[in-house]
Amino acid sequence: MQLGIVGLPFSGKSTLFQAITKTHLDAAAMAKSDAHVGVVKVPDERLDRCAALFSPKSTVHASIEFVDVAGLKKGASGTTQFTTSFLSAVKNNDALIQVVRLFGEDADPLRDVATFETEFILADMAVVESRVEKIHKQIGRAHDDLMKKELPVLEKCLVLLQQEKPLRNEDLSPEELHILKTYQLLSLKPMLIAVSLDESQQPIMEKEVGRVAAAKAGLRTRVVAFFGKIDMEISELSGDEARVFLDEYGIKESALDTLIREAYALLGLQSFLTVGEDECRAWTIRAGMSAQEAAGVIHSDFVNKFIRAEVVHYDDFIAAGGSFAKAKEAGHWRLEGKSYVVKDGDILNIRHS
Q: In terms of CB atoms within 10 Å, which of 146, 256, 298, 333 comes out highest?
């Protein structure tokens, strides 16, 4: 999973990137136009507990790639220019984190969100209009069944875009989303709006996040908050020290934990585990995946060679003392077929031919 971090200059975008990736760059490095990329392990206490039980040769957490998207420039008039390179880079991400600042005298999070919305909608309109025009010219020729399916979806999206509505919050069917996937439309990208505050604004955090959420949250848009300076300090501490530091400020979790939790929810993702003496590993899948589909995430050959899945939920496994035998005695260990819908926290062992 790749999450792109975007934001206007001085929004706190790069501070957030450095805090969650523990990538501490000097001003010269951050000033470069190239994107900065950091891979972060997804914290999972369930996996850590299993690793403590099995002492495996390797423990593999799920991971997320964060990209500090570069390319925004200030024009001669002082306004922000959304360059072609920036818009192209945004397309490559599974979802976006837009950082908007609440600190500073001229701060206006809703204005900054609207700035991105407008640019993304205009870029999408150009793509959709061009494709609709091309289809109208070609339709009627041989092999145009796909175009006939595509055209009404694109025309529907064009109307929405002309009404200045970002597509991410529209109730599009799975079939419509599949058709649109090819175009990597910017306003269709799931969005986390991250409100950047300084520590003195903690008392107004909930109120301000609620205000932004009331105006901008939607089907595929969520709103979170973070304290840039505090999270930068946390990134330099160990796990226990970080927890103490957060408690001192009365903050429930770090920006990293918040972003990962919200990103999983936004994208409809969950994790299952495979455990043993050789390896304990967390696997990320879409919610609603079957056991056969989940097996294919482990290895593509397992899809066709799938026989059964041995399943026990993590909570039941731990309640049984971390013993498969005792979990089986308690009736929690079971065999499931291809159509079994995997639950978050399931421990699977795939039987295959």
A: 256
Our measurement of the distance from residue 211's CA atom to the centroid of its chain's CA atoms, rounded to an integer in Å, reads: 23
- pLDDT over 70 for what percent of the chain? 95
- Read off the pTM: 0.89
Domain count, the chain: 2
Q: What is the distance between the alpha carbons of residues 156 and 179, in angstroms, rounded to a whole number?
A: 12
Residues 254 and 346 in one domain: no
User: Which of 158, 160, 169, 100 is CA-nearest to residue 131?
Assistant: 158
Q: Is 272 part of a structural domain of the chain? A: no
Classify residue 185: in a domain, yes or no. yes
Residues 345 and 214 in one domain: no
Helix%, strand%, coil% for the chain, nearest 5 = 50, 25, 30
Q: What are the residues whose beta carbons fall under 8 Å from the beta carbon of 209, sequence distance 6 or more?
A: 195, 223, 224, 225
Nearest one of 342, 312, 29 to 320, comparing CA atoms: 312
Number of CB atoms found within 10 A of residue 344's CB = 14
Q: Write the pLDDT tens digit of every residue in 140-197.
A: 665 677 788 899 999 999 999 999 999 999 999 999 999 999 999 999 999 999 999 9
- Does residue 20 contact residue 99 with C-beta atoms inside 8 Å? no
Q: Angle at the Cα of 171 (from 165 to 172), degrees rounded to 5? A: 100
Please give the Cα distance from 186 to 181 (Å, whole number): 11
| One domain, residues 164 and 313 | no
Distance CA 225, CA 250 (A): 14
- My answer on whether 97 and 17 are in the same domain is yes
311 and 340 Cβ atoms separated by less than 8 Å: yes
Q: What is the CATH number of the domain that holds 13?
A: 3.40.50.300
Neighbours of 90 (CB within 10 A): 22
Q: CA gyration radius for the chain?
A: 23
pLDDT for residue 148? 81
| Residue reference for tokens 């995430």 | 297
Average pLDDT over residues 235-258: 86
84-98 pLDDT, tens digit per residue, is: 999 999 999 999 999
Write out the residue range of the structural domain in which residue 203 sits.
Answer: 2-266
